[in-house]
Amino acid sequence: MKQKILFTLLLTAFATLSAFAQKSMLVAYNGGYFVKNDKEWSEYRPADRAGRWSSYKQYKESEEFFYLKNKKCRVAIPKIEKDKIFIDREKEGKWEVVYTPLNIYTLCPESEGVFYCYTAGDIAARGYFVRDNNIWREYRPLMKRSRWAEFKQCDENKNFFIVESEHNTVYIPKSNDKNFIIKKKDNSSWQGGYTTTAIYDRSVKYRYNFYFQQTLTAKRKKFEESGENARVSFDNKNNLVIAVDGKHYYFTYTSIEISELGGKEAILITIDKKNRLYLTDSNTCNVECKEIGKNRLFIGGDSKLYNQLKAALLSGTFCL
Fold this sequence. Notes:
Blueprint: H1 2-21, E1 24-29, E2 32-37, E3 40-44, E4 52-61, E5 65-69, E6 74-78, E7 85-88, E8 96-99, E9 101-106, E10 115-119, E11 127-132, E12 135-139, E13 149-156, E14 160-164, E15 168-173, E16 181-184, E17 190-192, E18 195-200, E19 208-219, E20 222-234, E21 239-244, E22 247-252, E23 255-261, E24 264-270, E25 276-280, E26 284-288, E27 296-299, H2 303-315
Antiparallel strand pairs: 1-2, 1-9, 2-3, 3-4, 4-5, 5-6, 6-7, 7-8, 10-11, 10-18, 11-12, 12-13, 13-14, 14-15, 15-16, 16-17, 19-20, 19-27, 20-21, 21-22, 23-24, 24-25, 25-26, 26-27
């Protein structure tokens, strides 16, 4: 019994020390979460708003808390889950409890804030998957300070993302009411699974998510490589987000239809008269949008998803 208590205390101490060195963290509460990126913090409340809810600047740090502020208030974020999240609404030193943390995850190098979190029955085995396009990385901070494992997405359905490594196939749920499933690589037997604790993915609310491996920008009548990875997400309620260059751009589109681009079939999504994008069956997306840089080309998309979208448009099942 004494050994178990000592082990738990050591894990808690390790988690606290880890928080000091972290440039990236996720602190979740019921209804939302904070994402730390060095001294910059962002708050998200997916049920209330599709994009960022609020931004903060870290101005101080103590043994127990990170202290943040913006024009409206100050917030104290705990480094361990037993503490509360406090707010000073008038910036007068009158701190009050505003949230109870559900989970605190450290060692999160990605800035997207895309986390699929689980527990495997042991506090040390608690971890999460981070999505980077079609590459998924698994982390277990209390067992290993670097990446635990890496997977490549091979398929998906309405309930799961299906990823695989050299040894295993993992079914990662798209909603909190389903758990992780793990199988041997040959799919011959079930090996067990993880209990889902939370999903923090800004793209999961959109029905259509096109992930692209590379981005190009038109310069002097030719395309030049300008970065890696981009995402175009939208639903049938006119909501559209383009994630590129480490930023998220939110739009309300006015129409979506099967059209043409350069004499070939394409799906045209119109934002307004001057801003639009074309999805093609050759796995590209031509973006004409002043806000993110006119004449951008995303390549390396998903033709399977394109055909699903095309079928929905032709059948009338994609309804605005």
